[in-house]
């Protein structure tokens, strides 16, 4: 900018002193706007690379391969190893997030690490925090590195909704366990005779909040109504998400997606849930949760998705020593929690101002926003809450609103509504997308935010690594 202003200044024969003053002023502005969040005595932690398998609609290509969930994660972690070339013995720890856990592989991180060829001497553990499970995996990795316990950690998440564990009813389980302990034929026959038809009804994984017995979609509908978010607004935002995702996919911007061959099927190389429609087509859909007058539909909700993600997180010192050029610094982060009934999906509203305060930034400082899109109504309600002084003062104990993200910076490569939302994997997708967008767009700061079941939320500031 300074050099552009210099030409007209020279042509007007302004004296050299004035020129120097103007030039130095613009230099100082530029330096200030590009300040780093590096702090003396605080270890710099970097995101070196992030990848993900294609996010696919549940019940499509992945289901035919009869994966265990850990197999899908193996593909993700092997893709990260291939992308980075990091030796397996250079990784100190592995953390993965998941929500619907397969009983046989409850510590899916450990089983997948062994399946990917890591040494059995490398520890691994699994975290679960609903839709922010891989966010927790990343921040737990940051904590290990900051504490000096590790130099390189692989974090990620996985969800395989095509094959969720289904249990027998509680009465049937009790009977079967008793049968296993029965010592005589008489005892066994007595227990078998006690089985009734109702005992055979299966228990599906809960899609409702345990504390409220309300589905998340129902909560999203009530939240949209509370903030006056119309059906048209929700459909418009969903259409925006799909349109931007299709554009990003066509332009090759979704470079975190890795291709692989699903056993017995063709090579999978792209997300298959991106489907731009029209407002007219979307308007034909009936409410999915609150019937008949609700506004949340299948078209403006995220869909059940299979997929895995993985990121390599390292201390900056170790990354540079190994010859890596990191993508971004992982800076301040916060977790929040609020009422799981009326404020179930407002995590971004509560987390965003807190993480900005920790980082000493304002909304205007952020160049890239990536918010998790659980429902279009949830996103719009959060944006309205963030733009409300009344809500900030009444519910958050704040003097004023934090403000809303500029839409020209917001989820420009699509979001969970279009790319898909494997519960345990979305957080790493958000972080990797921020890092890639900062590099592509030349921005300095990015912010991710997400809501989660239980009324929880997460936000993190990410800083671009110097080009």
Automatic annotation (TrEMBL):
Q: Which pathway is it part of?
A: Lipid metabolism; fatty acid beta-oxidation
Q: Which GO molecular function annotations are given, in alphabetical order?
A: acetyl-CoA C-acyltransferase activity; acetyl-CoA C-myristoyltransferase activity
Q: Where is the Thiolase C-terminal domain?
A: 324-463
Q: Which UniProt keywords apply?
A: Acetylation, Acyltransferase, Endoplasmic reticulum, Fatty acid metabolism, Lipid metabolism, Membrane, Mitochondrion, Mitochondrion inner membrane, Mitochondrion outer membrane, Transferase, Transit peptide, Transmembrane, Transmembrane helix
Q: Where in the cell is it found?
A: Endoplasmic reticulum; Mitochondrion inner membrane; Mitochondrion outer membrane
Q: What is its EC number?
A: 2.3.1.155, 2.3.1.16
Transmembrane region(s):
62-81
The protein's superkingdom reads Eukaryota
Reaction(s) catalysed (UniProt annotation) = butanoyl-CoA + acetyl-CoA = 3-oxohexanoyl-CoA + CoA; decanoyl-CoA + acetyl-CoA = 3-oxododecanoyl-CoA + CoA; hexanoyl-CoA + acetyl-CoA = 3-oxooctanoyl-CoA + CoA; an acyl-CoA + acetyl-CoA = a 3-oxoacyl-CoA + CoA
One Gene Ontology CC term in the entry? endoplasmic reticulum
Output the PROSITE patterns linked to this UniProt entry.
THIOLASE_1, THIOLASE_2, THIOLASE_3
Instruction: Provide the GO biological process annotations.
Output: fatty acid beta-oxidation
| Limits of the Thiolase N-terminal domain | 45-317
Subunit-structure text: Heterotetramer of 2 alpha/HADHA and 2 beta/HADHB subunits; forms the mitochondrial trifunctional enzyme. Also purified as higher order heterooligomers including a 4 alpha/HADHA and 4 beta/HADHB heterooligomer which physiological significance remains unclear. The mitochondrial trifunctional enzyme interacts with MTLN. Interacts with RSAD2/viperin.
Identify its protein family: Belongs to the thiolase-like superfamily. Thiolase family.
- Describe its function: Mitochondrial trifunctional enzyme catalyzes the last three of the four reactions of the mitochondrial beta-oxidation pathway. The mitochondrial beta-oxidation pathway is the major energy-producing process in tissues and is performed through four consecutive reactions breaking down fatty acids into acetyl-CoA. Among the enzymes involved in this pathway, the trifunctional enzyme exhibits specificity for long-chain fatty acids.
| Record protein name field | Trifunctional enzyme subunit beta, mitochondrial
